[in-house]
Amino acid sequence: MPVPPALEPYVASLVSYDVTLPGPGTHRGLPSTALTFVLPVDEPLDVAWAGDPGSRTVAWSSVSGLHTAPAVIRHTGTQRGVQVALTPLGARALLGLPAADLAGRLLTLDDLGRLAPTLRHLPERLAGTPAGDREALVATVLTALTDRLRRGDPVELRPELGRALALLTRGVPVAATADDVGYSRRHLGTLVRAETGLSPKKLHRLGRFERSRSLLGRRPLAEVAVRCGYADQAHLAREWRDLAGCPPSTWIAEELPFVQDLPAAQEGS
Fold first, then answer.
1. What structural domains and CATH numbers belong to the chain?
2. Full-model pTM
């Protein structure tokens, strides 16, 4: 659903998902410029960082901070629920702590404890809500939280930092971002790490990667590389292996099977 205006500073997207596959399997959760808040329905979410079985959680809620490695989601063939992409400001406003405290972590609402008391009963409420109304329920609960913020002390970022985060997540290079907001690269790095838990360079990488993901299957890989600021197609492929754990063509085959008939989408992978 469209993000309600009251939530726009805090929520990048709010999506209800309902997927039925032929049988059990795994889904690749890719790094993003947003924190991920998932509320599964019918069965708990089984997720871990790829290659790190000790990080595995199986629960009715999942909160993952910014990260530069893929996650592995195990499923029985059916995946239903609501997924919310939170901005760094949204972490402060809705979860009660800076995104830096969540970087590289997989948590549940129970782990957050007193920091998110209004959200703790949301999984139970969602389970009893018809599929068509789930997004609206989550949006209503999150909007109520922001209403309380407006009545109390507002949660804000200094304007220069907010602009810097926006530029980096759009894939603008670090030096250009620092020049735009009038910070030295060192000072920019200090502020961005304190807020997000990632360096400006890593956030820029995520922004460029995220943009490339939106173009895969729609444009030839060489064109995607140029449009997203990679040196060449080989550079794009290396970044995908590093951040996604697979080359672009593998992700296309896994997630976008209908584009396998488009030769341009498969070139040179």
1. 5-151 (2.60.120), 157-209 (1.10.10), 216-269 (1.10.10)
2. 0.88
